[in-house]
Amino acid sequence: MSDDKIEFKMLEAKLVGSDTVVFRLEDGAQVKIKVDIARAGVATNLTNPDGTPHYNIGAGLRIQVIPAKKKYYIQRSKLKFPTAKKDSDIKPI
What we know:
mainly beta; four-stranded antiparallel beta sheet; single chain; elongated; about 0% helix
């Protein structure tokens, strides 16, 4: 293995507590931030200068803003409506 490559042992991460933090903004909107660890590892061939383990953590954030009035809009053309059945499509029992 080359000296410029650092090897990491993959670690599993278990959630402790809630993965979501909620903030309320001055205008009444809520901001929900969900945190996730995508990848975690500890170096097997490197330590920090103080001798502690060197970790590599890949975190992900999902941010959702909920307006105070809790309303949103979608263009009518983007919605799918069920098609109405014609009388000719109805078969007698």
